[in-house]
């Protein structure tokens, strides 16, 4: 009997529903082959949640997410909801589900596929074979620190305030995840902060350094985040795993994504702690946004969403081989020069979102 799993699917806004439709097709295919036995529960999130429920994510949805084996999220946001208060915007739904499910470790791999090496703006020699993993702290730092807000000052000016806060336990738990992932990779970990300017960065460096004593097999280094931004362009292959805070991780992971030339290709996993029963909250989403400008045109690249599902197969459903199979199906499709618009190249075949999904399923059907 194939083990039963439940997944919460929150397609979200813009191209989110379109790319998640392709993941749905892949799950249906795997279920039909008895390779998986996955039930999907569907809920709106982001703008779609605001339109249906008046809030970007409901407590009910978050409860379902906590009980499910994992959450698969499309993307959130769009101009329609841009004027709403921060607390009720589509993005607030994403931040709330991350926070309430305590998804403190965000894994963002940046891998250069050989077939796509020409799509990068960086010289092929600099990025060939690139395979780095950014571990971004996701539930702390300036994203959530209090006090925050915009307040009028007596002199008639207004003041915008956000607070960067990290406690030792917040630093240690995400750093542990990064050390453990480095152990399964090339055993190099680079921790990034601004300890030359920020107390929170000084604490970050001290705690990571201390923890490093428990991982003598890992070559630990420290870098200021601005230098890391520069080194990512200069010589990205010096990195294996990078661990950093919420805001630096947001920025550095976009930069790393663009090294690969194709934001439409990059998956991510957001993980919580494993509880005593072995359950771990987890959410998987493409790194790209909701791209409202191309929503509904069939131009969206579903591969980041599909690769996010592959990460779910590996980390949450305990199907590492199926994850490998799905990833190599994607690689095969790229080798066949099948491309969505964002990764289109000379002498390649331009396909729509759903044709790309079909091409992946065709490869999967061969195994
Ligand atoms: C990301 C996004 C989000 C973030 C936004 C949509 C809130 O940019 O996941 O990287 O800043 O974390
Ligand atoms: Mn971002």
Structural class: alpha/beta
| H/E series | EHEHHEHEHEEEHEHEHEHEEHHEEH
What is the second-level CATH architecture of the largest domain?
3-Layer(aba) Sandwich
* Broad CATH class of the largest domain: Alpha Beta
Question: How many individual β-strands?
Answer: 14
| Multimeric state | single chain
Largest sheet: 10 strands, mixed
Question: Mean pLDDT, as a whole number?
Answer: 96
From the alpha carbons, calculate the radius of gyration and give it in angstroms: 20 Å
What sort of overall outline do the alpha carbons produce when their principal axes are compared? globular
How far is the N terminus from the C terminus?
20 Å
Give a short overview.
The protein is an alpha/beta fold and 367 residues long. Helix content is 39%, strand content 21%. The protein has 2 domains: 1-107 and 268-367, Isopropylmalate Dehydrogenase; 131-259, 3-Layer(aba) Sandwich (Isopropylmalate Dehydrogenase), CATH 3.40.718.
């Amino acid at each position: 009997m194939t083990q039963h799993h439940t997944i919460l699917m929150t397609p979200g806004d813009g191209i989110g529903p379109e790319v998640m439709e392709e993941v749905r097709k892949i799950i249906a295919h795997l279920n039909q082959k008895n390779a998986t036995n996955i039930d999907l529960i569907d809920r709106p999130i982001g703008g779609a949640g605001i339109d249906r429920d008046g809030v970007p994510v409901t407590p009910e949805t978050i409860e379902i997410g906590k009980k499910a084996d994992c959450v698969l999220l499309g993307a959130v946001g769009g101009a329609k909801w841009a004027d709403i208060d921060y607390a009720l915007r589509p993005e607030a739904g994403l931040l709330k589900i991350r926070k309430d499910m305590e998804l403190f470790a965000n894994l963002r791999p940046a891998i250069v596929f050989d077939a796509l090496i020409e799509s990068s703006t960086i010289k092929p020699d600099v990025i060939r074979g690139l395979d780095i993993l950014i571990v971004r702290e996701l539930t702390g730092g300036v994203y959530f620190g209090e006090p925050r807000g915009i307040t009028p000052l007596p002199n008639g000016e207004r003041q915008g305030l956000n607070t960067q806060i990290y406690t030792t336990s917040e630093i240690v738990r995400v750093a542990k995840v990064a050390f453990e992932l480095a152990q399964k990779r090339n055993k190099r970990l680079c921790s990034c902060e601004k300890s030359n300017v920020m107390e929170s960065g000084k604490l970050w460096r001290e705690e990571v350094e201390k923890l490093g004593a428990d991982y003598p097999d890992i070559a630990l280094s420290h870098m200021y985040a601005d230098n890391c931004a520069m080194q990512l362009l200069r010589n990205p292959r010096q990195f294996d795993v990078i661990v950093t805070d919420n805001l630096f991780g947001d920025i550095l992971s976009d930069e790393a994504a663009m090294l690969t030339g194709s934001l439409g290709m990059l998956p991510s996993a957001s993980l919580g702690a494993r509880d005593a029963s072995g359950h771990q909250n987890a959410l998987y989403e493409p790194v790209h946004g909701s791209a409202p400008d191309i929503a509904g045109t069939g131009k969206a690249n579903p591969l980041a969403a599909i690769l996010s599902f592959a990460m779910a197969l590996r980390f949450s459903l305990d199907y590492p081989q199926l994850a490998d199979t799905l990833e190599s199906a994607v690689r095969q499709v790229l080798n066949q020069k099948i491309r969505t618009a964002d990764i289109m190249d000379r002498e390649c075949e331009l396909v729509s979102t759903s044709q790309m999904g079909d091409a992946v399923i065709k490869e999967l059907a061969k195994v």
